[in-house]
Model the fold of this input.
Amino acid sequence: MLRQMGIRNFALIEQMTIPFTDGITIFTGETGAGKSILMDAFSILLGERASSDFIRHGKDSFVIDGLFDIGDNQELLDLLKKKNIDVEEGQLVLSRSFNEKGKSTILANDQAIPLKALKEIGSYLADIHGQYSNQQLLDADRHHLYLDFYNQEGRAAYEDYDAKYKAYKEAKALLDDMTETMAERARELDMLRYQIDEIEEAGLQKGEDQAISEELKKLDAFEHIDKVLGACYDAFYEGRHPLIDTVNTIKTEVADLLRYDQDVKEISELINSAYFQLEEAAQSLDRYRDSISYDEERYKYCQERDSTIYGLKKKYGSSIEDILAYEDKAQARLEELEGQALSQDVLEDDLAIKEAAAQEALQTLSAVRSKNSLAIRQALEAEFKDLGMDKAHIEFSIQDSQELTRLGANSIELLFSANKGEGLRPLHKVASGGELARIALAFKSIFSNHSLKTLVFDEIDVGISGDIALKVAEKIQALSTSNQVFCITHLPQTASIGRHHYHLEKEEVDGRTISTVTKLNQEQHLDHIAAIMSGKGISDTALATARELMHHFGVIYED
Done:
């Protein structure tokens, strides 16, 4: 329940503080006096989008605040606790400021909150309904909400289906994504298997490329190597002056000099060492020459092996180590993709399970909707009779779907007929303004029984008069037994049900137009009802009729 609202620098309102209590509060005033501005401010306080256009000319920002008594609203208290907003003595203070640069500051009990949170909190505090918000009734996309939130059974069935449908869609999206990449994944699998087989078939050994390269170099130069080795051996042992013999002669003669000169001993030892090293080298050359041979088969094998390794290097890396590392990565990727193939089977099974669960939930939802459709139709048509629409009929057209959809049906739409013998047609095509106002009120009557919200009716009685206006006022009055109700009206019938009456006027102060609000006492309230009927010149008849209206509604006015 709203206890007080303060407004500063908002459109025509310079500063205004209005206290409220339970029951019905009436707002009247000439067109343009600020009644709708007042409701705009209340809407913005509850989370509607703000605009710098609302800032009073010459000011840089507006501020709106409201004090709410929420001690009995356990759902809202639970929400605020979830959002870590402290509540003391069951009171909630909301404040919203908005400056000309578009910056908004929102506070809930002095704690900053985002606009989304304010809108969520506001949905628990008030329900604003006016001549233009009746358009909600004409939006077929929202008609299912009447069925699904009519009672706890409907809410539970809808929320269960909604959760299971979302789970089904998520599972389907995962599987579809995997299916879309199936061909690409199959190509990659084939490529990886080919690459791994090619590398494994080569049977590479670390360092093998260098060994093969060295062996090929020797085989390619075999004739030259053999020729050089032969010539060297001949130089050691063959010819007219074999090198070994020559060095041996030198060794012997220098050794003989030792008999005459010991100073050549060191030289003699060096020559001796050189001789034996040359002899060992000559023998090693001979043995090495005997050990080598040219093998044509081996040569072909090395060439083929070198070609294989070269081809693998071009594809997978500049060395055998790089090629083997590539194989390891390819093997890991192969296992990953093969695992995904197994995951696809799991996803298909998961989708089947979630689809079955959603289908079962849909059957339950459809049954509850069918039952609620009948109950709502009967309740609405009973309200229509009270509102002077005895021949009116309304029902929900539910086009069920065999496939799962977000709505849980192909379509759900309200159909209406105002007169007997006329076929039911979509509500937005056949309802007049006055009929729409009464239909909206009928919906409010059957959907507000357990609400703790403040109900705001902004000229909902537009387009009606006489007995119908009287019936509408009675319905609004009935709503006030369980809800705080605000009514902006131009009709005496609706004004007569008010326990509290605020009158808004425009006046000029220092060359500026401002909107002011006055709380009327009982005499002023009576006079104003009479004035609505007869104009400024209030007649005795109008006053008597005003008293009769108040008596009819059993209103005990509270100054």
Notes: The first helix runs from residue 35 to 45. The radius of gyration is 50 Å.
